[in-house]
Amino acid sequence: MMVDLGAFSDEKFDAKKWINTICQSRHPQDPLEKHLADLEMKLQMMSEEIAASLEEQSSSAILRIPRASRDVIRLRDDAISLRNSVSGILLKLKKAEGSSAESIAALAKVDTVKQRMEAAYETLQDAAGLTQLSASVEDVFASGDLPRVAETLANMRHCLSAVGEVAEFANVRKQLEVLEDRLEAMVQPLLSDALSNRKVNKLLVDALSNYKVDGVQDLRGILIRIGRFKSLEMHYTRVHLKPIKKLWEDFDLRQRANKLGSERHDVERLSSLNESSSSLPTLPFASWLPGFYDEVLLYLEQEWKWCILAFPDDYKILVPKLLIETMAAMVASFISRINLATGEVVPETRSLAKGILDILSGDMPKGTKIQIKHLEALIELHNLTSAFARNIQHLFSESDLQVLVDTLKFVYSPYDPYKQRYGQLERAILSSEIAGVDLRGAVARGVGAQGIELSETVRRMEESIPQVIVILEAAVERCISFTGGSEADELILALDDIMLQYISILQETLKSLRTVCGVDTSGDGVGPKKEMGLERKEGTHNTRKVDMISDEEEWSIVQGALQILTVADCLTSRSSVFEASLRATLARLSTTLSLSAFGSSLDQNQSHVASDDGTGKVSLAGRAALDVATLRLIDVPEKARRLFNLLDQSKDPRFHALPLASQRVAAFADTVNELVYDVLISKVRQRLSDVSRLPIWSSVEEPSAFPLPSFSAYPQSYVTSVGEYLLTLPQQLEPLAEGISNSNGNTDEAQFFATEWMFKVAEGATALYMEQLRGIQFITDRGAQQLSADIEYLSNVLSALSMPIPPILATFHTCLSTHRDRLRDLVKSESGNQLDLPTAHLVCKIRRVNLDQ
């Protein structure tokens, strides 16, 4: 049995726990007493061994103490000696420091004088050299050795910079500028010829002079030597701009040739055109543009490869500069062609040779509107340019980031006028699209056709909602496709305005439905009442003549009115889903456009929008942020700030992408609820309109000579009509509940919706009835008996509908069913505490019972 002594060194050592662990580890067949005895013996032997080892180690340590003491004393003496030696050395250093400081100061003065003398000597040499160079420069020019001329002029400029602003050399400075211009003029024809013939290292011989130099590399070196690199850029661009412009002008040649051929008025003039152009068929600009981009891209790829050999230090600047100058020269024509191409897709604008910009500026016949086809054509052209821009970004991937950004901005520059007015453009298209939705208001028809008109109008309203949402979703897609999201702030404003316009049309349609349903209100309300969360007044209504229409017509009107609720529910849900989708789109834009916020400082800190691949070059993968939206926002920091504020706000869960439209949708739902409620309560209002003035309340029993049996009063027709109508409400609401259940699959929600509306109408009917009861001025015992029967019937109807009986109505019933002689005692008794006392006093007043007696 092995014993581990490591556990004894633990600060939390528990002897009982250790013994129990040892006992658990014994063999099951070993007796516990034997195991513990063996353990005790081993521990005792180990303790004896430890004590013996400790005694041995202590004796050895005691023997080593005297030797250690002697070593300590010797080390102390050595330290004292070393400290004395160091103190002597420090004293000598301090004495030497004072004398050496004076020597160093003197040497510094001598060195300064020496440097000044050397500078003066070099300046005198430069002045002498400048004089000599100025005198011999004409001979150098006469030699025809252009590199030597460049070197001479460079030396003259160096000497001028050395001598500074000396009056004696002012004329030399002017002479130098003239000489540099002269050398540049000599180099220009050679450079143009070298660039045109792609001569890199071949010998160039000018037939009209004796100038002999190598190819463009030496010519570049000459221009660089005299600080005229801009001249190289200018000549390179001028030489290579012509072929690209010729490609661009080919489209106009095609159009002109086709026009002349179609008119057939000038055959000679047609034949004088370029045969290759006149024989080609006419192509729309959108079909011609991809070929142009392909040819330009091929030309630039060839130039890029050639410039790598000819200008290994400058090709990253020269070729992008060529494309920038090309786009700058073509931008006005490009914008015009885009404008005409967008007008070509619609016959109305094609016949007038006008486009989007003309419509936006108002330079069109009245009634001409921007159509969605115009914008789709614009987006198609923009997509072609985007593909070209991606190829350019790949081709120029080795260029500096700022050069690449400037180049891509020029590539997209023809679309800037359209993007600047994108909000106006999209708003015009959406307004036209909304105007095309069938939202005719309801027209009042004769009896028997009102239900049909109501149903058709509600159907048009309900079908228009998904159509409008699809129109708005398409606008969001167009914005992302055309602008990459840079105009999202303008789009949000346009969408909000269009939603307001659409909801206003729905509100006007609701007004026409009120007329068809016969629930137009007049303003003589009798008291405020809070229903459905809205403050409104129950008043006299120009209700439809219930007795003049059939039950089928009334049923169809009620069903049509209930269907308006589905319109409100559909508008609320679809607008909510669209707004959530809009927030998700803004969230994606917040991620994709986050890097563009640093666009205005690209030249200062490129690390914000690109990554270094370790070779000193910015990798192409790190430039994914250079999309169309980023390039648009770089030059408009105020717009970028507004857009990013919007994107930051969209991260808040309480954010409404369409704030005004959200409020108007809620208001529309409230208006729909009010209309439906007025329709459902209309029959009740009609039946109860004159209850307070019924003559039966003041009637008395006719005297009779014979004793007649007393019969229980039956409820009158007005209350039975109301009761029957309330009892049929569940049946009326059943189709609506089924429609809701089928649309969202939630049966419980549909049932709750129907029950809620049933309660609203029942509560409203009860409120109207109680208002009429309060308006009774006097009631006889016979009238009280009849009214008690009427109230009892209505109470039974409410109970059948699982509605509680209002305390006021219960008080009316109790006080009216009580004999007049016992009414005072009832009100004053303890049971009177269960009554609504103001109502009980009112009934006593109506029954002419004096409570003061």
From TrEMBL:
Keyword Transport part of the UniProt annotation: yes
**Keyword entries, A-Z:** Golgi apparatus, Membrane, Protein transport, Transport
Membrane topology designation? Peripheral membrane protein
What is its subcellular localisation? Golgi apparatus membrane
Q: Which GO terms describe its cellular component?
A: Golgi membrane; Golgi transport complex
GO BP annotations of the record are:
Golgi organization; intracellular protein transport; retrograde vesicle-mediated transport, Golgi to endoplasmic reticulum
Q: Which domain of life is it from?
A: Eukaryota
Q: Which Pfam families match?
A: COG7
Q: Which residues form a coiled coil?
A: none
Assigned protein family: Belongs to the COG7 family.
- Official protein name in the record: Conserved oligomeric Golgi complex subunit 7
**The species this protein was found in:** Tetracentron sinense
Q: What high-level taxonomic lineage is stated for the organism?
A: Eukaryota, Viridiplantae, Streptophyta, Embryophyta, Tracheophyta
